[in-house]
């Protein structure tokens, strides 16, 4: 019963995260100044000044995960929470360690890749599609190996990950090379 209740709680939290993340894309610019320069009693949102549909906590959560951390790749966090909730409720049996590792690698890779290739399209936006994490890692690696080196690293890690997911990747690469 306890596992079922915790799983149900995780499902509700997953829905809350997804709603706050989605709302961030339209309301994040309005909430950003409130988050970066907080005033007393603003967190309670008694005057309804936060535009995020999930209130002040939703605005802070989305700002942290989408803006400061992983950008669009932050949606992997609620995806894992959903799998964990379903597993605890015994509605769906999954290997949580495998899913955690795969989603973590995919989240980090997507964060860096989106920062590398989509940042020029989001110059005037209130967030970076790869988040601040992706932007920092992208700039650090580019300083070390340059832009072609970063692209090569991203391609090699994508191929390694796809090979881990499915051995069919090896056959496809062999066909491409022939």
Low-confidence stretches: none
How much strand? under 5%
Query: What's the helix-strand series?
Result: HHHHHH
Assign a percent range to the helix content: over 70%
Number of strand segments: 0
Kindly report the oligomeric state of this protein: single chain
Question: What would you say this structure looks like, in words?
Answer:
The protein is mostly helical and about 180 residues long. The longest helix has about 35 residues. The radius of gyration is 19 Å and the shape is flat. The mean pLDDT is about 90.
Topology readout:
Elements: H1 2-36, H2 55-70, H3 76-88, H4 96-118, H5 131-165, H6 168-177
In short:
The chain contains six helices and no strands. The protein is mainly alpha-helical and 178 residues long.
Keywords:
single chain, 178 residues
